[in-house]
Amino acid sequence: MSRPVIISCAVTGGADTKEMNPAVPVTPEEIAEEVLSAHSAGAAVAHIHVRNPSTGKASMKTSYYSEVVKRVRDAKCDVVINLTTGPGARFAVDTMSPLEPGPGSVMKTAEERVAHVIENKPDICSLDVATMNFGDRPMVNSPDMLAEMAQLIQSAGVKPELEVFDVGHVSLANHLVKTGIISDSKPLYQLCLGIPWGAPASPESMTLMRNMLPKDAIWASFGISRFEFPMVATATVLGGHVRVGLEDNLYISRGKLASGNAQLVERAVKIIQSIGENVASPSQAREIFGLTEENNTSKAAE
Fold first, then answer.
1. What is the pLDDT of residues 208-224, one digit of tens each?
2. What does the alpha-carbon distance between residue 159 and residue 95 come to, in Å, rounded to a whole number?
């Protein structure tokens, strides 16, 4: 029997630029429009970062998140809203003064990192259960920081999505669940693959990390760049859910830029259906996640 597979669309990150692909959304209006188009193409979940509209650079400004969320809700779109809490954890090491934050460091308190979540009360928000070399700069999330963020997130009635980038991160996330720091009977994990320098985007990595999850966990996975679509197929076959989007990959095929998030979602739909599974609607995604329509309706009315 076929099952519903949830497609999440990460519509914009903080690193890619319009110079790399003109379709990358920057302003709150552009980001909201990409959410709506991705939803129409088949995405049940929208994973959202925001940017400074003037510079295009990553931002943590709550008002930008509020505008995106309001535009999506005002459009009566039932997409599951997933806001990032990743920014605010980058420590650039100055090799001459290693105890001092180097250029490019952005380290924030737990309250600062989740302020937009508390303000906007999305359905879900990401929680990066990882301290690692993330490209050219370390990403730092101590266990104490994660515990404090988890408490704030869950107190706001928001479901954490535990983003894990390597095998040890799964162990830490499992510890957070086992000790009740993540108080959720159906914890949600996102297996993030192919990011330098985390676990590679391969069936072997995904299978190993999946096999470490708690029995009642819900999980999804994605690969970045050219591994995006192979990991859609792999996650579908292994019983998980999937993620695509311009945050993770700018191309629809080798050398050909994607025209927007919707095109990436449409490709994911075809892959899922070709394997014999169905694409989940937002209401099905909410049921799988353990979210309630009543909560979402009340949030949308606020």
1. 999 999 999 999 999 99
2. 38
Architecture of the domain delimited by 4-301: Alpha-Beta Barrel (3.20)
Q: Cβ(271)–Cβ(233) under 8 Å?
A: yes
Report yes or no: 130 and 163 within 8 Å, Cβ to Cβ: yes
Mean pLDDT of the chain: 94
What does the H/E/C string look like for 70-96? HHHHHCCCCCEEEECCCCCEECCECCC
CA-based max dimension of the chain: 60
Alpha-carbon span 284 to 296, nearest angstrom: 13
Tell me the backbone φ, ψ of residue 231, rounded to 5 degrees: -75, -25
pLDDT in tens, 119-141: 999 999 999 998 988 888 889 99
What angle do the packed helices 282-289 and 293-301 form, to 10 degrees? 110
What are the Cα distances from residue 94, in Å, to 77, 105, 139, 142, 186?
45, 10, 15, 20, 41
User: Whole-angstrom Cα distance, residue 212 to residue 219?
Assistant: 11
User: Would strands 241-244 and 7-12 be described as parallel, antiparallel, or unpaired?
Assistant: parallel
Strands 256-257 and 124-128: unpaired
Q: How confident is the model at residue 299 (pLDDT cuts 50, 70, 90)?
A: low
- pTM of whole model > 0.90? yes
CB 80 within 8 A of CB 284: no
Which residues, including other chains, have CB under 8 Å from residue 131's CB and lie 6 or more apart? 138, 139, 140, 141, 142
Secondary structure element (H or E) that encloses residue 286, with its range:
helix 282-289
Looking at per-residue pLDDT, the higher value among 99 and 238 belongs to 238
